[in-house]
């Protein structure tokens, strides 16, 4: 994905109204097999997104720009006390991390949205950098 891109949400649900094992299970199994057998799934390094949500794609398979696209693992997100150390203005990313934790996936890619107004983009990028400094987000 490259260039100016609007809002994209990738999720792993085949049917958001029926998330039963009977319906979802075969798709989860196929997705897990597929991701075990490939070297990479998505290249977002050159994408300038207004918003990007990637759920269900292992972060190790996403080619990213380490300056603006970060990985948060479940293990790092569950570390104690990092929220208490956040600046007061960094409210968006903790909310996103809470949603990620409720999904059950091992990791997520968080992207600073380059297509947002510059002030908002820089605020969100600063928030991601703060998460990296606290050991919650990692660039690779």
Descriptive overview:
The chain is an alpha/beta fold and 140 residues long. Helices cover 37% and strands 24% of the residues. The protein has five helices and seven strands. It has helices at 21-36, 74-77, 82-85, 92-103, 118-133, and strands spanning 2-10, 42-43, 46-54, 62-63, 69-73, 107-111, 137-138. Strands 6-5-7 form a three-stranded antiparallel β-sheet.
List the helices and strands and how they pair.
Layout: E1 2-10, H1 21-36, E2 42-43, E3 46-54, E4 62-63, E5 69-73, H2 74-77, H3 82-85, H4 92-103, E6 107-111, H5 118-133, E7 137-138
Parallel strand pairs: 1-3, 2-4
Antiparallel strand pairs: 5-6, 5-7
Order of helices and strands: EHEEEEHHHEHE
First-residue to last-residue Cα separation: 18 Å
Low-confidence stretches: none
The number of helices is 5
The biggest sheet, with number of strands, parallel, antiparallel or mixed sense and barrel status, is: 3 strands, antiparallel
Query: Structural class, please?
Result: alpha/beta
- Estimate the global geometry from the Cα principal axes: globular
Strand content: 15-25%
**pLDDT averaged residue by residue:** 94
Q: How are the strands ordered across the major sheet?
A: 6-5-7
Query: Helicity, in percent?
Result: 25-40%
How large is the radius of gyration? 15 Å
* Extended strand count: 7
Give descriptors for this structure:
140 residues; alpha/beta; three-stranded antiparallel β-sheet; two-stranded parallel sheet; 5 helices
């Amino acid at each position: 994905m490259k260039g100016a891109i609007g809002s994209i949400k990738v999720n792993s649900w085949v049917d958001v109204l029926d998330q039963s094992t009977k319906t979802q299970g075969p798709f989860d199994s196929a997705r897990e097999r597929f991701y075990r057998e490939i070297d990479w799934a998505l290249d977002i390094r050159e994408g300038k997104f207004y918003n990007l949500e990637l759920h269900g794609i292992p972060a190790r398979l996403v080619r990213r720009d380490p300056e603006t696209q970060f990985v948060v693992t479940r293990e790092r997100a569950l570390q104690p006390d990092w929220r208490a150390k956040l600046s007061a203005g960094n409210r968006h990313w903790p909310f996103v991390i809470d949603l990620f934790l409720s999904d059950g996936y091992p990791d997520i890619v968080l992207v600073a949205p380059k297509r947002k107004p510059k002030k908002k983009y820089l605020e969100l990028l600063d928030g991601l950098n703060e998460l990296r400094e606290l050991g919650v987000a990692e660039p690779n």
